[in-house]
Design a protein that fits this description.
Layout (H helix, E strand, L loop, with lengths): L11 E8 L10 H18 L2 E7 L3 E8 L4 H20 L11 E5 L5 H11 L11 H8 L7 H13 L5 H4 L12 H7 L2 H14 L14 E2 L2 H10 L9 H5 L5 H12 L13 H13 L4 H7 L5 H15 L3 H14 L5
Parallel strand pairs: 4-5
Antiparallel strand pairs: 1-3, 1-4, 2-3
Helix pairs in contact: 1-2, 11-12, 12-14, 13-14
């Protein structure tokens, strides 16, 4: 089984996620949550890892950590194994608790990337169908297609404020901050407790993700282009244990994607880049999302300032069309295959 990429960086920021096996619950009662928090406390002293944000959900968890000692892999492995042993012993069971190994995204420590990662994490408790913010609903609100009523917004804000198992209550001034939780750095970047609380509430009432966090699935790093270039240089030689490095070393510049689509269409980018719904335009956006390693917002910026919502909608529209259009599907596959031999 291919292992997720691990890049341990001194002073690195990471968004860490682990899910229960077969989407099963990893927290079944209050004591489970409490023990996991106790382990987070122990992890900070044992490994020197800084925990900056967390959200514990029924079948998964999110952490935002910083590693002064470049030991994220060792620390999270210890955390998951320790919790699994305790969880199984308590219930007299054997077997895996978590679905494979944890995933981690290396986050740019400069600018607002770490701050926005914390916001993304803290929004998890209300990003559910119970609050009218399932994946489809959240996307519709973000695009301005649906507007929640006041009653729904009040419900979301109350749910966020009352949720016991995330660090938001500490950040927002609703609860005492545990000694092991680091809040000072991100509160400083936000402008203080009140400003952070308002920033969170802004995303709840608008139903949009924090900047740069619109679609992070499958990403291994998150940050500005300069940061991504530095991160790619950290990836060492390809090994059998981590063949995913082959993919990482083949992230493609958007310029190369445009040239390929121009060749396929026989038309220059300038002639179709502004045409809504154009096959070539949407193909470029689709390939950029698949192969550039950039977020939706970064893709929009690279292509002349397109709104990230428009980029996301075009990518989604193109993906949906592939199931019904065999010719378009073959074209996309040809492009993906040709891009697989283009290295940055």
């Amino acid at each position: 089984m291919t292992r997720p990429l691990r890049i341990d960086v001194e002073g690195g920021w990471y968004h860490v996620t682990a899910r229960g096996i077969e989407r099963r619950a990893i927290f079944k009662e209050a004591r489970d949550y409490e023990h996991f928090l106790e382990l987070l406390d122990e992890m900070t002293s044992r490994y020197g890892v800084e925990v900056h944000a967390y959200a514990l959900m029924v079948n998964h968890y999110h952490l935002l950590i910083r590693t002064p000692r470049a030991n994220a892999s060792a620390a999270i492995q210890w955390l998951n194994v320790s919790y699994s042993v305790w969880f199984n012993k308590k219930r007299g069971r054997v077997g895996h608790v978590f679905q494979g190994r944890f995933t981690s995204i290396l986050v740019d420590g400069e600018g607002s990337w770490a701050l926005n990662s914390s916001v993304y994490i803290h929004l998890n408790p209300v990003r559910t169908m119970a609050y009218g913010l399932g994946k489809a609903d959240n996307r519709a609100e973000g695009l301005g297609l649906v507007k929640p009523d006041r009653k729904e917004l009040v419900k979301r804000l109350k749910g966020l404020r009352d949720y016991r198992w995330s660090s938001f209550s500490g950040y927002a001034g609703y609860a005492k901050i545990p000694e092991w939780l680091e809040t000072g750095e991100l509160l400083k970047r936000a402008g203080g407790v009140s400003a952070y609380r308002k920033y969170i509430q802004l995303h709840v009432t608008r139903g949009i993700e924090p900047e740069g966090m619109e679609d992070i699935k499958g990403l291994w790093m998150l940050g500005a282009r300069e940061f991504q270039d530095r991160a790619k240089r950290l990836v060492g030689r390809v090994t059998k244990e981590q063949p995913s490095r082959k993919w990482l070393k083949r992230y493609v510049e958007i310029g190369s994607i445009i040239k390929l689509v121009e060749k396929k269409r026989g038309v220059e980018w300038a002639n179709f880049s502004q045409k809504y719904g154009d096959l070539g335009r949407d193909l470029v956006l689709y390939l950029a999302r698949k192969r550039s390693g950039l977020t939706l917002r970064q893709i929009g910026d690279e292509l002349g300032g397109m709104d990230y919502k428009a980029v996301g909608k075009a990518v989604q529209r193109f993906e949906l069309s592939l199931s019904d259009d065999a010719a378009r599907r073959r074209l996309a596959e040809e492009c993906m295959n040709e891009l697989s031999i283009v290295e940055t």
